[in-house]
Amino acid sequence: MADDDRLSLNTATTKRLTLTEALEAAQRAGLKHVGLWRDRVAEVGLPAAARLVAGSGLNVSSLCRGGFLTAVDPADRKAALEDNRRAIEEAATLGTRELIMVVGGLGEGDKDLVAARQRVADRIEDLVPHAEQHDVRLVLEPLHPMYAADRAVLSTLEQALDLAAPYAARTVGVVVDTFHVWWDPKVAEQVDRAGREGRLASYQICDFNLPIAADALLSRGMMGDGVVDFSLLTRLVDATGYQGPIEVEIFNADIWASDPDDVLTTMKQRWAELVLPYLTSSAAPQRV
């Protein structure tokens, strides 16, 4: 296996590139995988996007994102379910099983986290049959607690795994994102649990930068620029037997403004220094 065979460019990292440009940048960098965001797919339309991806020879490691399932209003709830069913179909058409789910936060004036989490559970139940029909996995992403109010009422891997538990591992899984889980005192226990249950569907990497940006969403950084211990987290993921693609997903205004080829060059260097040394070639196949 070549050093970069598992490295995937998530298109959020090169936000200003079109889908075609992002695919070409990944090709120039010698990558084999790309993680797609639905906005880039929508710009060209799903059929054209599928053709572009197929023509690139790149594997789609995941599609981001489904989710935002916490609406109270019946019309909003219906719209969210319809959008998520479309996202499931898009993932299948683009050739990936992994649909990343950012489950949504609290609505305006809402302070009932328990009820919001129950709505997420109810909507996942609604979506599972459609996901099974299209052989797509709903990949629950716990986000750092600072996003609980506006983006994700799931803040820990434990919460995500508990929500996934009623369903087959092939249909509902979780993603380990270093930005979101590095702080969790139960991270070792819960990554191991995800592996034992066959639910570890994706590993996404970037750093946690300080100070927090004015827009907290943009506090992600290039690996090595912040406080994340990539050796620890990568060892934990590797020990589960996960052998899938590893995506670099960064939201950072300075990185978005940089030359994309330079960003990918740095990305590959940091991968080689901070992540690759902690991956084994003898890990058992992932349990599903």
Descriptive tags:
single chain, 288 residues, alpha/beta, TIM Barrel, eight-stranded parallel beta barrel, two-stranded antiparallel ribbon, 11 helices, 43% helix, disordered C terminus
Describe this structure in words.
The protein is of the alpha/beta class and 288 residues long. Helix content is 43%, strand content 16%. It has eleven helices and ten strands. Strands 1-2-3-4-5-6-7-10 form an eight-stranded parallel β-barrel, surrounded by seven helices. The longest helix is centred in the middle third of the chain and has 22 residues. It is globular, with a radius of gyration of 18 Å. The protein starts with 6 loop residues before the first strand and ends in a 14-residue tail after the last helix.
Question: How many domains is the backbone divided into?
Answer: 1
- What is the end-to-end distance? 22 Å
- Sheet with the most strands, sense and barrel status: 8 strands, parallel, barrel
- What fold name goes in the CATH topology slot? TIM Barrel
Shape by Cα distribution: globular
Radius of gyration over all CA atoms, rounded: 18 Å
On the 0 to 100 scale, the average pLDDT is 96
Helix % is 40-55%
Helical segment count: 11
- The first-level CATH class name: Alpha Beta
For the secondary structure, the number of strands is: 10
CATH architecture identity: Alpha-Beta Barrel
- Fraction of residues in β-strands: 15-25%
Stretches where pLDDT is under 50 for at least 5 consecutive residues are: 282-288
**CATH homologous superfamily - what is it?**
Divalent-metal-dependent TIM barrel enzymes
Q: What is the structural class?
A: alpha/beta
Order of helices and strands: EHEHHEHEHEHEHHEEEHEHH
Spatial ordering of strands, largest sheet: 1-2-3-4-5-6-7-10
